[in-house]
Amino acid sequence: MRISRRDFLAGAGSSACLGILPAAATMALADDGFVELTAGPSLQKIYKESGPASSLWTYNGGVPGPEIRVKRGERVKVRLINQLEEPTSIHWHGVRIDNAMDGVSGLTQDAVPPGETFEYDFVAPDAGTYWYHAHNKSWQQVGRGLYGPLIVEEEEPAFGLDQDLTLILDDWRLDREGALDLESFGSLMDWSHAGRLGNWLTVNGASLPRFDLVAGAAHRVRLINASNARVLEQDLSDLGGKLIALDGQPLKEAMDVPSGGFLMGPGQRADLVVVPAEGRELALREISGADPFDVARFVILPEGTVRASHPTLMANVLPEPDLTSARKLVLDMTGGAMGQMAGMTHGGEPLTRERMRETGQLWGLNGVAGMPEVPFFRTSSGETVLLEIVNDTAFPHAMHTHGHHFRIVEQSRAMVEDTGAFRDTILVAAGETVRIAFVADNPGKWLLHCHMLEHAAAGMMTWFEVL
Ligand SMILES: [Cu+2]
Predict the structure, then answer these.
(1) Is 164 a domain residue?
(2) CA 226 to ligand 1 center in whole angstroms
(3) Domain containing 93 — which CATH number?
(4) Residues in domain Plastocyanin-like (predicted)?
(5) 142 shares its domain with 222
(6) For residue 254, how far is its CA from the centre of ligand 1 (angstroms)?
(7) Angle at Cα 201 formed by Cα 196 and Cα 204, nearest 5°?
(8) Can you give the residue range of the structural domain that contains 249?
């Protein structure tokens, strides 16, 4: 039996003043200029101070892993040291990266065995908010804490470091004592339904942390959804301000924050500019459940010398898709509980109910569950791909393209409003059809999958190759 979400939320309220902070990950810089990320086991309290420690896997001993910051166009150099008991790799989510550095075990590199190291060395071409996370058995490795923020600054950042906040949100499933529920990893019930949903939300690994904002100053607040499967619904009205970037890429024009709930699928990011007025504390609220609750609070410090300047971001230079000459492709999503499963295959064989139970494969892309031997498509570099994604399942999905950002061309139901920004992950509601377009200009083998990590593990994964 588990504590219900409601009980945990009640707990969140009563522990509001405790300010529980987990161990912070340390930044480790080696003599050769590489940042060292050591993946290893770590005992951390993610529930209450009086509660039990959780058996996490972390980078450098804390969750999230250290924030890595570079400037646009600079190299990111990271040495992964694997002190886990299983192989791992790191994916740099949203970065239009050299394919060999994309970190996808089994596609762009072999997973790094226990005790061994791997050096990631790549250029970060776009400024914005990104994140890194394990990409081998992600459903467990990310779910146990292997993730952290990657911030690519503009050449001349429009915001001072004190006015630049990263909030990485994670939805944990705790057991009745308040420790990470390890037994339920791999639950076929999760895999076939909405994925591993949690009952405890942390921001930067902490429960209800407080941040300082200066009255009258413009702050950049970077939100990252690191949850395995939860679509966060944030009430941003208290913070106010403007939405300036999504998935790392600036909007053409800043938009007022949505007045209702703001949906963020797993893997997605949103950047806000917030200029608080002097006065009461502000809160960021999660309203996806029946009982809305605060996830972070903001203390407003008296007006200082930093004045609001409402800076705008300089766009990254991405190739614009040309729809007139686009190559049109359809990606049909099937499977899952209450979904269409007829005709699905796995490993070249019909996917019977029995084989679903044996293999855990039960979601399909174009009828194929799991990584296909041959790519979904091959294309020459520079070609525009217009991809129609048809969600013929009973659940929403968060489709993520590796190595490329896309424009949203059409949405039949618009689960999330199209702001005109380039995205790397898109929420597709049950029954919805979306069309996205991008220039396939980055040579290599690229994963295309649902970022609800259980869905990906259970088959919702394919790849394409740019020649
Ligand atoms: Cu999904």
Answers:
(1) no
(2) 15
(3) 2.60.40.420
(4) 46-156, 362-466
(5) no
(6) 29
(7) 115
(8) 171-301
Tell me how far the alpha carbon of residue 267 lies from the centroid of ligand 1, in angstroms.
12
Q: Same domain for 338 and 442?
A: yes
Q: Which residue has the higher pLDDT, 39 or 314?
A: 39
What average pLDDT score do residues 133-137 get? 98
452: CA distance to ligand 1 center in Å?
5
Residue keyed to tokens 């009255």: 215
For residues 274 and 206, membership in a common domain is answered with yes
Question: How many angstroms separate the alpha carbon of residue 434 from the centre of ligand 1?
Answer: 14
d(CA 298, CA 174): 26
b/e 16-29 (16+ beta carbons within 10 angstroms → b): eeeebebbebeebe
Both 104 and 195 in one domain: the answer is: no
Q: What is the distance in A from the centroid of ligand 1 to the CA of 451?
A: 6
For residue 413, is it within any domain?
yes
Which two three-digit tokens encode residue 410?
A: 């059409």
CA of 238 to the centre of ligand 1 (A): 30
193 and 136 co-located in one domain: no
Is residue 316 in some structural domain? no
| Final residue before a domain boundary, out of 245, 266, 301 | 301
**DSSP character string of 185-244:** TT-HHHHHTT----SEEEETTBSS-EEEEETT--EEEEEEE--SS--EEEE-TTT--EEE
> Which residue do the tokens 């190299």 mark?
75
Which residues, by Cβ under 5 Å, contact ligand 1, an ion?
A: 397, 450, 452, 455
Question: Same structural domain for residues 24 and 141?
Answer: yes
Distance 139 CA to ligand 1 centre (A): 12
Q: What is the whole-number distance in angstroms between the Cα of residue 363 and the centre of ligand 1?
A: 8
> Within this chain, do residues 353 and 422 fall inside the same structural domain, yes or no?
yes
Sorting pLDDT into bands at 50, 70 and 90, what band is 16? Answer: very low
* Helix, strand, coil percentages for the chain (3-state, nearest 5): 10, 40, 50
Report CA Rg, the chain. 21
**Cα 40 to Cα 261: distance, rounded to the nearest angstrom:** 36
Q: pLDDT higher for 10 or 259?
A: 259
Centre of ligand 1 to C-alpha 258, Å, is 24
CA 421 remoteness from chain centre: 17
Distance from the CA of 380 to the center of ligand 1, in angstroms?
28
Do 380 and 336 share a structural domain? yes
Instruction: Summarize pLDDT for 17-54 with one digit per residue, the tens.
Output: 333 445 678 888 999 999 999 999 999 999 988 889 99
Does residue 355 sit within a domain? yes
pLDDT at 2: 35
Query: How many domains are there within the chain?
Result: 3
